[in-house]
Structure formats: structure tokens, C-alpha cells
Amino acid sequence: PISCRQPRRQETKKAEAPVRRFHSPATNTMSSSLNRIEYSEKYADDVYEFRHVILPKELAKNIPKGHLLREHEWRNLGVQQSRGWEHYAVHQPEPHILLFRRPLGTDPVTGRVDPELARQARDEYKGQFAFRK
User: Fold this and answer.
1) Higher confidence at residue 132 or residue 41?
2) What spatial distance separates the first Cα and last Cα of the chain, rounded to whole Å?
3) Which residues contact 19 (CB under 8 A, 6 or more apart)?
């Protein structure tokens, strides 16, 4: 049979409720672990600036063994810092503490050493410790 009904008017859409995201306990644990990564203040000598990063024990289990971490590896662990840092040493009694360094004068955006910034940083370091030229 043929229908002569009028097509229904399109109802106006109601405002959609905000999307609720469900986080599994594993996601919550990972997120909680990332929030507990501790970053030291920077410290320096006349060549490098240094910092150390303390990972929570549950993240430390994921540290690749047998080599210093490349940038993509420490970033995949959740470590967040500007460019130019290199993982330069492992402290065996506490492998969850990552030791980083970068040359003085490193531009944090590009990760490259700016000779003028390096000179200023060396001069500042020498001034703090009363070194003579």
C-alpha cells in the first residue's frame, strides 16, 4: 500500500551531555605514576648543566636494561623536559633515578648549543665560584 503520510519534522537536537571518559585501573595507575615523576632543580659545572629525574618504582620496571636511554625511550617512560638533555649515567644502586646532562648554553627549544648562551652560562658559573680567567 502507498502511504500518504507527511514526513516527520526533524526534531531539533538537544544539547548533548558531556562525554564521560572511563579510565581503567591500569590507566589510572599509569596516570598516577606519571604525576609522581620527580624532577630535580638544574645544577651545573663549567661544561654541562645537570638534573636528575626520579621515577616511581612501577615505572622503573619499564626501563630498558643494558644501555643508556635514547630520547624517545625516556620520553616513552613519561619523562617530560625540554630538548637537548641526554641520559648520561646509570646509578646502579638506584636505577629508577635517571641522570641527565646537556652542554651549557643549550637552547631548550631546539636542543642546539648557542655559543653566546654558552659563554654567558660559563661566565655566570665562574662568577658564582670566583674563578679567574
Assistant:
1) 41
2) 102
3) none
Which residues lie across from 106 on neighbouring strands?
A: 113
Of 103, 108, 106, 98, nearest in space to 76 by CA: 98
> What amino acid is encoded at 99 in this protein?
L
Q: Which helix (H) or strand (E) holds 126?
A: helix 115-128
Supply the DSSP symbol for 106: B
What DSSP designation does 114 have?
Answer: P
pLDDT digits (tens, 9 = 90+) for 68-88: 999 999 999 999 999 999 999
As a 3-state breakdown, the chain gives helix, strand, coil percent values, each rounded to 5, of: 25, 20, 55
| Measured distance CA(114)–CA(112) in Å, rounded | 6
